[in-house]
């Protein structure tokens, strides 16, 4: 199982300071051996996040790093123009050396829907429509620049069985942040996926939490045996760079303590054991 770090880009300083610290955090995550680094999108300061344009910031991260994969966790697809999103994502993928992991979702902020003059109640249907158009664009001959491998690095953030089934039917990876009840839906995804199953499970680590406590919680997590990646994030999200760096160290120590493969069936990934 791969280890990634997700930040909501909501530090206590100005946006300029927070963006600078986020780039530094990504460099530290790469040095610590993390496989991927993800940034969340928030419009109009929702949830105290300061980043409405994740692909722009990841362009700066791409120039400061060389190996770590760069994820959007996630772009609210229901608010996006699919062609512009495909073009921006393709440019970043080329600049980064094909390191982009394109995560999208329906979005959960009614204020953002109002800001973009969209019907919040239609966000799930709108997200599915954008996803389908993105798949056509990324796999088609007209996109400039060409990004042929990006189609295989799309992710859909969802907490519902319907969303899991939709991702499975389209061959898209699933991002799940549900702490309880997700395992049956993830098992269902593995059974139904038309392409290689990819599951990223997001989990919180409290600032100052001991690595032993994190390791114990991971061992008991019923969703992790179905995951191909674990994405950790700091709680509270609006913390300083030092807090994020402590979480990096704690996560690496905790995962190292529990990372052992288990035999779990023909379509199940390596999981966690004591």
Automatic annotation (TrEMBL):
SUPFAM superfamilies: Bacterial luciferase-like
Classification via InterPro entries: Bact_Lucif_Oxidored (IPR050766), Luciferase-like_dom (IPR011251), Luciferase-like_sf (IPR036661)
Source organism phylogeny: Bacteria, Bacillati, Actinomycetota, Actinomycetes, Pseudonocardiales
Descriptive protein name: LLM class flavin-dependent oxidoreductase
Gene3D superfamilies in alphabetical order: Luciferase-like domain
Organism in which the protein naturally occurs: Pseudonocardia lutea
Stretches assigned to the Luciferase-like domain: 7-223
């Amino acid at each position: 199982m791969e280890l990634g770090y997700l930040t909501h880009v909501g530090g206590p300083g100005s946006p300029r300071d927070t963006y600078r610290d986020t780039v530094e955090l990504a460099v530290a995550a790469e040095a610590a051996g993390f496989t991927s680094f993800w940034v969340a999108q928030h419009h109009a300061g929702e949830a105290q996040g300061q980043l409405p344009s994740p692909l722009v910031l990841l362009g700066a991260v791409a120039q400061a790093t060389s190996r770590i994969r760069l994820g959007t966790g996630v772009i609210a697809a229901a608010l996006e123009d699919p062609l512009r999103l495909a073009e921006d994502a393709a440019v970043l993928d080329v600049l980064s050396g094909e390191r982009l992991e394109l995560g999208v979702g329906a979005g959960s902020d009614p204020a953002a829907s109002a800001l973009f003059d969209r019907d919040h109640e239609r966000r799930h249907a709108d997200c599915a429509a954008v996803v389908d158009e993105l798949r056509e664009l990324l796999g088609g001959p007209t996109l400039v620049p060409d990004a042929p491998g990006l189609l295989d690095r799309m992710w859909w953030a969802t907490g519902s069985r319907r969303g899991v089934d939709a991702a499975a039917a389209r061959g898209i990876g699933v991002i799940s942040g549900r702490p309880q009840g997700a395992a049956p839906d993830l098992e269902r995804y593995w059974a139904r996926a038309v392409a290689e199953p990819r599951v990223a499970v997001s989990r919180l680590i409290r600032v100052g939490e001991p690595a032993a406590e994190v390791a114990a919680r991971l061992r008991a997590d019923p969703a992790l045996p179905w995951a191909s990646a674990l994405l950790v994030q700091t709680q509270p999200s609006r913390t300083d760079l030092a807090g994020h760096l402590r979480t990096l160290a704690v996560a690496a120590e905790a995962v190292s303590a529990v990372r052992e493969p288990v035999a779990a069936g023909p379509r199940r990934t390596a999981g966690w054991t004591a």
